[in-house]
Structure formats: C-alpha cells, structure tokens
Amino acid sequence: MTLSTLRQKFLAGETTPEAALRDLANDIATRDKQTGAYLSHDLESALAEASKADLSLPLGGIPIGIKDNINVLGQPCTCGSKFLAENYLSPYDATVIRKLRAAGAIPFGRLNMDEFAMGSATENSALQTTRNPHDHSRIPGGSSGGSAAAVADRTAIATLGSDTGGSIRQPASHCGVVGLKPSYGRVSRYGLVAFASSLDQIGPLTQSVEDAAMILQAIAGFDPLDSTSLDVPVPDYLANLNDGVKGMKLGLPHEYFGDGIDPGVRHTVEKTIAKLRELGAEIVDISLPHTEHAVATYYIIAPAEASSNLSRFDGIRYGHRTKQPADIADLYRKSREEGFGPEVKRRIILGTHVLSSGYYDAYYGRAQKVRTLIRQDFENAFQKVDAIISPVAPSPARKIGAGAADPLHEYLSDIFTLSANLAGIPGISIPCGSTDFDGAKNLPVGLQILAPHLEEAKLLRVAKAAEL
Question: What's this model's pTM, rounded to 2 decimal places?
Fold first, then answer.
C-alpha cells in the first residue's frame, strides 16, 4: 500500500507500525532473495522506534528504506563498496534522517547501490547484484537501484535515494515507480557520502506522486550544516497538488526526442503527452541547444569532484586498510587499489587528469563554462513554458551484464537526466506505461518532468495530473 494509505490505516487503528514492520520484514525474507535490493535491515531497532511512534505526525510510524550512502546513526553505510563494508558504522544521523524522524518516520533497511553512486545499473556494487522486480534478468537502473527495486517489489513503502546525474529518476523509470530529484539546495546534503558535491541531491522514491510530496515536505528546508543549503521558505507541496494542468504550457525539447530513443518508449511518452493536452495543457516545442554537450560536460565535472571527495578514503582514518604495507605510500596505494572497484577507479583517474596542471583550463574550466550555457538554456525555456516533459531514458531496462564491455554507452544512457543536475533544477520520473523491449514484455517506461529552480510544487502538480 502507499504511504498515505498506510498512514490512514494507522490512524483508523486497522494496523500498527510494529505490524507493518513485521510484514515488511517477512516480505524481505521471502521476495528480496531474488531481487537483492537490501544489504541489511535491523528489525529490532526499528520495532523499538515503532513502539514509541507518534501517529499524529505527518509520517508517524511509517518505515522508510535508506540508500546505503546516507548516514543513519549506528547503522552500516557501505556505499556499495568494499572500502566501507568491513567495519564502518555511521557515527551520526544525516540531516534528512533527523528530519524524517522529526516527522515520525522510521528509517528501516540499507539499500544496494552502485559503488559510491557511480553507475546507472547497480551492477557496480561490490556487495551484491540487484535485479529488476519486473524481470529478474534485467537491471533496476542506478545508482539508486536498490531504492527503486524495493519500492517496485513492495518490500518498502517508500525509500530515499540520491541523484547526481539521474540516479533517482532513471531507476524509478526502469522499475515503474515515482522518483523525485529536488532542486539543488532544497534538501540538505549533510550526511550524504559525497560523490560530486555540486550535483548531488537526496530525494524520495515512492509508489505515488502524493507520497513523494509528503516525503519532500518532511526533508526539505534550510540546514546550517550544509553550506549549499538555501535559506528559503518551503511551500506546502500538498496544497495545490490536484489543481491540474489546464492553462499551463509544457515544453517538448526536440533534442530529447531524437533518433536514439526506442520506438516503444517514444510511443508511450507521446500517449501521456496527448493525455496532458486533453487535460488542458498547451504543448509547446522548445529547444535546449547545448544538450549535445551535456554528457561530455558532466563526465568532466562529476569525476573531477569525485577524485577530490574520494581522496579521504586513504586507509588511515576509517574504512579498508591493506595488510602489512611496506611503507606509508604503499599503505595509501594498496588500500585504495583493494578497496575501490573498476568504475570508481576509472572516474578517479579521469577526474584527477582533468584537474591536473596543464589540463585544468582546457577541461574543467571549459566544462564549467558550458555548464553555465546549459543552465541558461533552461532559464530561457522557462520564460516560455511552465515545465518541460521528456523521456527519462532512451530505452527500458537492459539485461544484466549487457553493458559491461562499453562504459561509454552506459554514460550515454543518462543523456536526458544529467542536464537537470548541471542546471540545479528539480526533476521527477513517473510511470507512464510499459513497452516490449529486447525480447521482454511490458517493461516500465518513465516520463520525466522538469521545472524551474525551487518550483517543486509546480513539478508535483504536473506529475499528479500525468500520473496513471
């Protein structure tokens, strides 16, 4: 059941938070053996919290699954990596966890992910394989694959993920759930293990748009512990959720509807566009002319920031430490060689290169200038339209292992999502139907909706109207 439905049952006395947790634990025990969304869960601690739940709070007694790069006091935070899997326990709660608890929610379960959030399939996890609940031979998407798969498999009511270039929206699309990336600065990043600090955002994955609005209401807001957090009012995201799209202008960027889209994805998205038109929206053709440079720009900026952020994993302070190093340099080298997986190493090498002397201006400096142009594209577009709609991904979920030989092809799968991170604007993926693909029937397809910076209320309003 959805978060809002479960809350109603709590208030009506039809069930209790403890019973809901035990039901979820049973579902995890029976179904998650195939899906592999969960890395761990602590039922006893969650039951202790549930026994004291204040049902009058907006999320009172609701269990929420947590992506394994968000710190929860006393729980593992592996980031899907061998580096943190051995003995690291979080010494504090991330701000989003404190806010969830303040709203009455109960963090329950650690969810699998691509190592340090670097990937689009959850195949880069060093700990286990997560499978798409709709077809266990296929990826759930990534990097928040565990968070999306758990909601789709009904082993979680709702979850938190993180989105650096599409890591909430793309797995939401592949798994047929709702995934919301807030505006940069809307939700605190304090307690999120950093991948690319100018791009990362925490957001919810849920079964409905209303549920996403409820969780965003709880976790949004200024946080002095995050220097990038914005001190601006947080609106009531539920107040105008059902106002519809009549009179709104919705933009279709022709760069997002090119030759690379699977025909089934295109057809499914176009049916939803037709529905929005019938509901009174005006569909407007627009252009985002610098889209062709977005992938190259992202894969300079994100690895550069990652190489800096991951330098703290050195075998000295916490995490994996190699056995019997010859000297301090050998300790650094072997600890990182043993602890990091291939994709993380690839991005560290790339990021270090573009930041190195003689290359900084040619690569990183230029990428930041193109990033400004991409942001200006959106600013210009939003002078003409209220929101932008597009596919989330060029195709539905591929088979597990099919992308292993071609990292560049994997990077291109994020082409419709990563521009929103570069621009700092909010985006959401909602299920808009299904299609046949690569020998499989009825694979989920997601519709992406983008809105101006800090306009999550408008984003959710459009998403609610388009929701199946």
Answer: 0.97
